[in-house]
Predict the 3D structure of the following.
Amino acid sequence: MSSEPSAPGRLSAPAYFGCVALVTALGAALAMVLRPAFGHRVLEFAGVEAMPQASFESFYTRRVAPLFAESCMACHGEDRQKGELRLDSYAFAMRGGRHGAVILPGDPKASELMTRISLPAGDEKAMPPEGKTPLSPDQVTVIRLWIAAGASPTAAVIQGAPRLVAEVKFPELDADAVRRMRAPLAGEVARLSALYPGIIVYESRNSAGLELNAMLRGQAFSDADLKAFLPLSGGIVRIDLSGTSITDASAPVLARMTALKSLRLADTKTGDAAVSALAALKSLKSLTVTGTAATKPALAPLAKRGVEIHGDANAD
Amino acid sequence: MQTDTAAPPDERVRVWDAPTRLFHWSLVALVFVSWLSADQGYMTVHLWSGLSLLALLLFRFGWGLMGSTTSRFSDFLHAPHKTLAYLRTMAGGGRVLHAGHNPAGGLMVVALLAVLLAQVATGLFANDSLRFSGPLALFVSDDASDGLTRIHGIAFDIILVLVWLHVVAVGFHHFVKGDNLVGPMVSGKKQRAHVPEGATIIFAHPALALGLLAACAALAAWILF
């Protein structure tokens, strides 16, 4: 290594770095044009990029965004941006990806997003890609109509859009967990089911809650029969005693049904004593007293607490 | 083989060996091919260019230890204070002669090699979320693969910045200092006036480079197969 005065170059250092700054700026500008995603990032960083928001009640928010969330955001969301495209907000969706806008308002045929989601599943460019669940024809129509109508962030209704079909999903049944929940009363349930066939059943396949329905027994079902179910008092959530022969003598039994949510006493010989016994049942939500001797004053505390009272009570 | 730079002033003296020059321009070509192939979705081409880059980078690290004088890390890696002194001299209008890389250039070489190696290494585990995964992506979890894919993208931006700085520095030497660095990297020869007096360069045998390259290529191929 040796040092010596610099040999003259063609440019001074300031002139050279001025040229470098100019070329850098031109290169960055060119990159922003050729790579719109990069351009948007730069503008956003500089705080000059508009970020339009979709309104809460808009067609986009209610119908389009959920489709993007379900089928697209795994690869075009916050964590991953394949092709530098994000679909997790209206602003990002309208911004487009590496090669520019994928949604052209009013022109679904020219919109890359529409092209991709309309391709047959086996096509290399089809979206969602092979192995993922494709959008249904109705879902594709929803997106197409939204783009055709201008891809608005605020329009609430798009004419001709397929109706939204509610999707009902049942939770997975965990048989072991259900068995464990039912275990404490399982023996009594089996015994009473043998004595009173069809009277006591579980309210659903994944619940330990019990339903006692004596309506079909009619007058043959008495206070003594109801008392026989006392061992299950902590597990019974619904009771239908309509048309049975029970009376206010069952009031103490009913008072011990601590899990009870719904009770039907229609056309029985019960009255205020039975109704008053229900005051301690904090879970009770619904009570039917049609054709009983229950009076409004007796029912008032329950009604005040929010229990739904069905049937006309006596005025007294 | 040895070059004595004590020769007539108008004579051109050899400073770069063929393996180093071939490495340099192959690297330029492969980085460009890797960029273009990834951008256009030709992922098989991207895989091969990436593995070729890996072989090339491994070769360069080996050549930096056992190659010719000007290719060795020991020749162009300097203590920070020496690099700063060099930059101060250059900024003050002075000129410091080096047969091979100057201290700032040496730092750039190491930075580029390190980032390129990180780029290639992360690419082995990366995925494009569709139909393509790096050859080692199966050996890590999906989350790890996704994380390395993100690093793969960030490293590329760093490479672009370093390449631009490298070009700007080479342009500075050419246009401001009157020192052409590109020509010697093509021909291997510099004007004697641009080489320190009495500098001695020992050139390693090309067969050593071939053997080293073959070993590095075999290692890269082993990863794929």
